[in-house]
Amino acid sequence: MTDTQKDTAAGAVPTRSGFVALIGATNAGKSTLVNRLVGAKVSIVSHKVQTTRAIIRGIAIHGSAQIVFMDTPGIFKPRRRLDRAMVTTAWGGAKDADLIMLLIDSERGIKGDAEAILEGLKEVHQPKVLVLNKVDQVRREDLLKLAAAANEVVAFERTFMISALTGSGCEDVMDYLAETLPEGPWYYPEDQISDLPMRQLAAEITREKLFLRLHQELPYASHVETEKWEERKDGSVRIEQVIYVERDSQKKIALGKGGAAIKAISTAARKEISEILEQPVHLFLFVKVRENWGDDPERFREMGLDFPK
What we know:
The chain is α/β, with parallel strands linked by helices.
């Protein structure tokens, strides 16, 4: 039993817990904010839009409260089956949460996808808070106008102005959530920061390195799966992962000239996975062509998404 739980058992400190869905347009900074609030990397970040594909749960302790953040896929106008699955997952996560945080990129303001999300939130009945991100890039008078415009559309409980990148304003968000979530026992052990299985987290890390290395060259249609995970007697881990692409031309991009790209991706991913596991990692990456993997129900299950008809 933790110190907080002992105090609670003695009647001194009531614990609180709940699920907070973080929603917003693509590249609003949701994954960066979740990692900031959790205090560790639980969600991958890249410049490529729609990086987050399924709901990633990051778990934070603040005072006597356990806050489970649900980093949802960015909401946008879907064009493909994978897009539809991601948007449906995002709205489903919002409706399952105790509280919804709408993150808006202050530089972009309320237009396009952000405007459509505000309209959609009218139909969602959970308590909602507004978080304006990247406020260090925008004049205060423009921020106040943006906050007023958003609150005219949806009745937010509170409005916060933050920078997910620097952490400015994030402590106020945590204080509010810790006071607002319902009283009750914690859902997860105190030292757990995510509910993502390690095999899946390792695949997500490799996918991030793939995007960071090749985001201008490799199309969106790529996917990483961990196929083998072997704990070895010397304390190291052998991991085999497959990068799926849709065409031979994409495979050549992922491999790079003389294998340079795949080697760099593997080195970066291995280093980060090893740091998280706190043990040596032997990472082997393979690139396979699987045409139209975006129409394969099995791939959707691997990503934690429902396969839309």
